[in-house]
Amino acid sequence: MHTKLTIPERLKDLRVSEKKMSLQELSDATDIPCSTLGNYERAENVDMSLSSLLTLADFYHVSTDYLLCRTELRQHKNKSVSDLHLNDDAVQILKDEKYNPRLLSELLTHESFSKFMTDLEIYIDSFNDKGIQIANAFLDVMRCKLNELGADSNDTFAKVFDSSHIETEQYYLNILSEDLKPIVSDLRNAHMKDSDTASDIDYQSMVKSIIDDFTLQAQITADANTESSNEAYINGLLLLFCKNLEMNVTQLSAEEKQILK
């Protein structure tokens, strides 16, 4: 996914995701021609008039800087770094953009992220460890009582008590993993149609096509000269290589083909 939205993407995101409006409905609401609005959302180099810029910013209740992708803050004015209560290393990481800032923002604002942070804090601070210890102690006492009553290791209830013991570390890791699953899934699904997300390819058909092309190329070469089986094999590999890189082998010069071979 992109680290930042482009202006056309931001305009379309505001219209479709937030306002859930068609271009015609937006045109009726802003008095900006529908064709003009459509052009704003398509053109890579947006030539937007000042009047349209101000009208759209007012309509979406955002700043013009936000509309032009000069900032990711739509409501908050730029704050001092100290207001964020982050340490120097964290601030430096954000400044260096070591991680995708857009993805990081979506992660932090996901509705399930607060639950993840709450459970993480409980785990780090061992708030619930005593509760787990008490539960395990109860199971141990019950297991001892069964032993006193003559139960052996094959006893059904003994097995239940033995298998119900809670491993603190694994218990919390399972909870944190479950917290993250909906977040990761939602973020992935939200960006499935992004221009730089891998497309939904039928790999079985693609591989079959590659193999068929390879076989055909080898057969053509072998039919032309029965002593050139090695050349046929190499040509087939070249075709396979180009196919994987989405290169048109017919557009390669003789010198380029020789280098690849």
From TrEMBL:
<dbReference type="Pfam" id="PF01381">
    <property type="entry name" value="HTH_3"/>
</dbReference>
<dbReference type="InterPro" id="IPR001387">
    <property type="entry name" value="Cro/C1-type_HTH"/>
</dbReference>
<dbReference type="GO" id="GO:0003677">
    <property type="term" value="F:DNA binding"/>
</dbReference>
<dbReference type="InterPro" id="IPR010982">
    <property type="entry name" value="Lambda_DNA-bd_dom_sf"/>
</dbReference>
<feature type="domain" description="HTH cro/C1-type">
    <location>
        <begin position="11"/>
        <end position="67"/>
    </location>
</feature>
<protein>
    <submittedName>
        <fullName>XRE family transcriptional regulator</fullName>
    </submittedName>
</protein>
